[in-house]
Amino acid sequence: MTALSTARSTPSIFGGVMIIGGTIIGAGMFSLPVVMAGAWFFWSLAGLVFTWFCMLHSGLMILEANLNYAPGASFDTITRDLLGRNWNVLNGLSIAFVLYILTYAYISASGSIIHHTLDELNVVFPPRLAGLLFALAVAFIVWLSTKAVSRMTAIVLGAKVITFFLTFGSLLGHVKPATLMNVAEQSPSYAPYLLMTLPFCLASFGYHGNVPSLMKYYGREPKIIIRCLVWGTLIALGLYAIWLLGTMGNIARHDFIAIAEKGGNIDVLVQALSGVLNSRSLNLLLVIFSNFAVASSFLGVTLGLFDYLADLFGFDDSPLGRLKTALATFLPPMAGGLIWPNGFLYAIGYAGLAATVWAAIVPALLARASRKRFGSPRYRVWGGNGMIALILLFGAGNALVHVLSSLGLLPVYK
Ligand SMILES: N[C@@H](Cc1ccccc1)C(=O)O
Fold this sequence. Notes:
This is Aromatic amino acid permease. It is a single chain. The chain contains 18 helices and no strands. By secondary structure, it is mainly alpha-helical. Helix 6 crosses helix 16, helix 6 runs antiparallel to helix 17 and helix 10 packs across helix 17. The N and C termini lie far apart (64 Å). The site of phenylalanine has 17 residues, from helix 2, helix 3, helix 6, helix 10 and helix 15. Phenylalanine binds next to helix 2, helix 3, helix 6, helix 10 and helix 15.
């Protein structure tokens, strides 16, 4: 009995780990092997570990600031109170931008993966239409209710985890050390290509909007929430490492050039993988996994955007109010998907650029302000001012890298 009542007063960390892991692992991971082809496996792994470290600590900094407020206080409330109106406006704009551009990326990605799936079944279906229909289906679920979204997400996430292990368990069995070590190339250079991968790593480790949701769920329990963040991000890091191993151990480095040239969208990558694997069942698994991976982030991110816009425009919760919010959420990215169906890689890069504001820079400033104003009595991220400086530098560095690479000033592997 006692065990039962303790379990009820503090929900287990499993749910929180799933929320964090589920948000992190999404379409972003499909951009990783393509943009990391230049830096290749070991350098990219180092970049991933570094990004994991910084993104975990910036999440902990949001928690540090959040603990001064009642559970349920949103990102918006905390930022306005600690950093003032201007920072809050910038923060809100960058959140909206990231959610919009990710919704666009998911539409583009789902169009491409559905097109590929049907292609496997010998059905010809234009990717634009596929993306549009998929977006309409997601819009319908989001319009129905939050509960509908969380039920769908639970199902899709479960399927994603199962197919992930089935797919990657067998994918690892196919890894060819000669391909992974890139023995074919004579004196290759990798390090110069590392910097341009950083915004993609950052986007792939984004989850920070969920930290206030965890506090709403668990209450002021820093120990439990810290464990959720550590485990959720570590699971993602582990899966990304396996994903790099599975892709770079099967597709030769120079073959990635053609993949990137075709827009780097998911179908091209999956097609290249199936081409080398020569296994019908593995191919099918991979296709199923990609569909679920895109669908679960799609639901999570659009729900976030939906709630944000409803709050911003003051649309109510009636069916008509929700319809207005759904239109504001889905129409702009859908239009984008119709006009530019293949902007997946660009979109993830821009998501990294904008996410650096609210997932790195603002959290570091929040922690600093929280220490000044409240002394952060409940929990304080280790490392003092040095850690705050590191996260600020990480955030600013990412923005700089993205700008330089958009201007064509960073080396590109081609
Ligand atoms: N990490 C998510 C994208 C994301 C970024 C920022 C916040 C929320 C989600 C993905 O890989 O698809």
